[in-house]
Amino acid sequence: MVEITTAEPEKFWDPIPGSLVSARGVELKGPWGHVFGPLDLDIDEGGVTVIAGQAGAARTALLMALCGRMRLTGGSLTVFGHVNRPAKVFAQSAIACLNELDEVRPSVTVRDMVTEQLRWDSAWYKLVPRVHEDAVERMCAEVFGDVPLPALNAFVDDLPEISQLLLRIAVANTRRPPLLVVGRTDRIADDDERLVFLERLVALGERQSVVTADVNPVPPGVGVRGTVDLRGLLGAGDVGVMTEGR
């Protein structure tokens, strides 16, 4: 007698209205040891949520896990109603400003970055020529807002820090998925530029759920929807997995 079995259906949570992420006992262990966890956290849908915690491998790994770029080793992570299904979350999210994923070489120009992304977004059989200023404006205007757009032939490495980060967001966010994860907020040294950067994320949060991280307090009145305080719970992490900003 042959026993016929069917694949176990995907388990869904009973979502709280307006909830985007629910994590219970999530943890990550790398080849060389413990990275973070176990942690519990909840993130509401819409607007900007800041994860407050020390910069390092643990924080980077958590951000990557929230958008389906890293598989956890323990606990339950529910995003968009998908329980422990990183591939499902990957398809509905974008991530920017993490050197482990989108670091830009010094020799790359603004034109190079925009052209390459348009080629990735186009069908394989379409020829996409090198772009001009109008393509940079179409891709970047919403993200940059009142911040001046970068010059077409400028080297990305020569741009102000805030322009570099906004450009990386614009390139990563062309599909406008429901979830946008942004790292490196606390790498902006100038307080005024950091405030402008957060304001640009808040503007994007009117159409997407935006999650970022910062070791510094969030300035009052900037419009950030919520803060998840993981200070003391996210250490430097396992440097054998990854290191942030090195």
UniProtKB/TrEMBL annotation:
Annotated ranges, domain ABC transporter: 38-131
Gene3D superfamilies, A to Z: P-loop containing nucleotide triphosphate hydrolases (3.40.50.300)
Superkingdom of this protein's organism: Bacteria
Keywords: ATP-binding, Nucleotide-binding
InterPro entries (UniProt xref): ABC_transporter-like_ATP-bd, P-loop_NTPase
Transcription recorded as keyword: no
Pfam families: ABC_tran
Any one Gene Ontology molecular-function term assigned to this protein's record: ATP binding
The protein's name: ATP-binding cassette domain-containing protein
Organism: Rhodococcus kronopolitis
Source lineage: Bacteria, Bacillati, Actinomycetota, Actinomycetes, Mycobacteriales
